[in-house]
Each structure stands twice: as structure tokens, then as C-alpha cells.
Amino acid sequence: LILFQKGQTRTPPAFEIFFCFGEEWPDQKPKEKKLITVQVVPVAARLLLEMFSGELSWSADSSPLQISHPDLKDRMVEQFKELHQLWQSQQRLPLVPPPP
Length: 100
What we know:
alpha+beta; two-stranded antiparallel ribbon; 3 helices; DNA-binding transcription factor activity, RNA polymerase II-specific; RNA polymerase II cis-regulatory region sequence-specific DNA binding; IRF5 factor; Interferon_reg_factor-3
């Protein structure tokens, strides 16, 4: 994520986690052909990637399944918004060379 944020790689890091149940995996079959697969998307990882790519579009309604306690999620979203605002303000500051 840091390399992507610095522009040292064009490919954003993968953050999705896939689980397969009831079958051997990995094998020759693509995950779309498996009987039971689960895709887990860590919200924090997705928020950080969107924040660094400038595509912060996440909202509390964008996740179809929520298991976390809503208060915890709300606090985390607020913290990421604050972190994003801080990051944006840091991007606008002129670079000052360190003292000799």
C-alpha cells in the first residue's frame, strides 16, 4: 500500500480474502466454479486504498453484510475521515528540507 501511495507501483495491493468450503482449493478450477466461496473484504484495507488512490467513496451503506457493532464501525469511519483530512492537509503543505 505504501509503494502504491508513493507511485512506485501501478498495481494496488489485493486486500480481498477468499475462502472455499467443501472442496479442495487451490486446484485447476477457478474460484467462480466452486460450490461455496466466501469473499471477505476488510473495510479498513479498502478505506485505506481508496483514501490513497483519491477515490474515497465508501459509506456506511456500501457494505451488504455487517457483523461489527455499529458504534465501533461508526467510530472507525470517523477516525478514517480524520486520517484522510490530515493526509490531504499534509499533501498541500510545501516540502521543507530538514535542517542541516
